[in-house]
């Protein structure tokens, strides 16, 4: 039964890994275009960041970590995307053992519940991809050497908490105040953006 659970976690990991890597790469390309850079060396270096960012965050989302080319259990991971899935799987497996279900019946139940929790996880996934985009932006701006700081731009109709951050500028390595972290999103479905403030030389 642990094998089935682990199999689903690996599927989730693979899904999230591919998604986060693509989004981080897109974020890097957009950020370099923003500062007018088309340096292959920098792009390559930035994309290495995308690979490790996606791997680490996808692993974290399924309660694992990436060590020496392998996914291993990580008791400290946040279980954010998988808490619901994990509980559902545990409940199904317990029931299957108690009631002597066939393997087919168990597989069907797992499939239904996995789909159910996947839709609940969608909001979390959307937030994670927004983080990956911004992480790619900021990393590429750092490598470009053209960007002095970053500025929070509030999204159209975004919440009051976000309004307070509108126009706030901090150094690339610094967190925004009031829990803004490295950049948007501030909350699920946040529509805010972060833009680069160029150095004097780059203007
Ligand atoms: Zn916002």
> How do the helices and strands follow one another from N- to C-terminus?
HHEEHHEHEE
- Tell me the number of helical segments per DSSP (H or I, 4 or more residues long): 5
Q: What would you call the shape? A: elongated
Number of domains: 2
Write a concise keyword list for the protein shown above.
three-stranded antiparallel β-sheet, 203 residues, binds zinc ion, 2 domains, mainly alpha
What does this structure look like?
With 203 residues, the chain is mostly helical. The chain is 58% helix and 12% strand. It has a 3-stranded antiparallel β-sheet, covered by helices on one side. A two-stranded antiparallel ribbon has the order 1-2. Helix 2 packs antiparallel against helix 4 (103-144) and helix 3 (83-99) runs antiparallel to helix 4. It is elongated and about 70 Å long. The structure holds zinc ion. The site of zinc ion (ZN) has 8 residues, from loops.
Question: Secondary-structure map with pairings?
Answer:
Elements: H1 2-34, H2 40-61, E1 64-67, E2 70-73, H3 83-99, H4 103-144, E3 147-153, H5 160-163, E4 169-171, E5 193-198
Antiparallel strand pairs: 1-2, 3-4, 3-5
Helix pairs in contact: 1-2, 1-4, 2-4, 3-4
Bound molecules: zinc ion (ZN).
Residues 155, 158, 162, 184, 186, 190-192 line the site of zinc ion.
Q: Concise description?
A:
The chain has 203 residues and is mostly helical. The chain is built from 5 helices and 5 strands, in the order H-H-E-E-H-H-E-H-E-E.
């Amino acid at each position: 039964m642990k094998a089935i659970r682990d199999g689903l976690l690996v599927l989730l990991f693979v899904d999230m890994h591919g998604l986060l890597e693509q989004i981080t790469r897109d974020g890097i390309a957009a950020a370099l275009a923003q500062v007018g850079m088309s340096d292959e060396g920098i792009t390559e270096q930035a994309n290495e960041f995308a690979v490790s960012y996606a791997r680490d965050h996808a692993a974290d989302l399924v309660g694992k970590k990436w060590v020496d080319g392998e996914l291993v259990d990580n008791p400290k991971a946040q279980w954010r995307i998988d808490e619901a899935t994990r509980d559902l799987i545990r409940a199904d497996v317990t029931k299957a053992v108690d009631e002597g279900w066939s393997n087919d019946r168990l597989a069907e139940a797992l499939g239904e519940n996995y789909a159910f929790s996947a839709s609940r996880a969608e909001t979390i996934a959307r937030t994670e991809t927004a983080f990956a985009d911004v992480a790619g932006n900021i990393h590429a701006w750092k490598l470009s050497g053209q960007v002095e700081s970053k500025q929070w731009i509030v999204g159209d109709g975004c919440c009051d908490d976000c309004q307070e951050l509108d126009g706030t500028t901090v150094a690339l390595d610094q967190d925004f105040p009031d829990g803004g972290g490295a950049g948007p999103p501030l909350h699920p479905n946040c529509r805010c953006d972060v833009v680069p403030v160029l150095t004097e030389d780059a203007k």
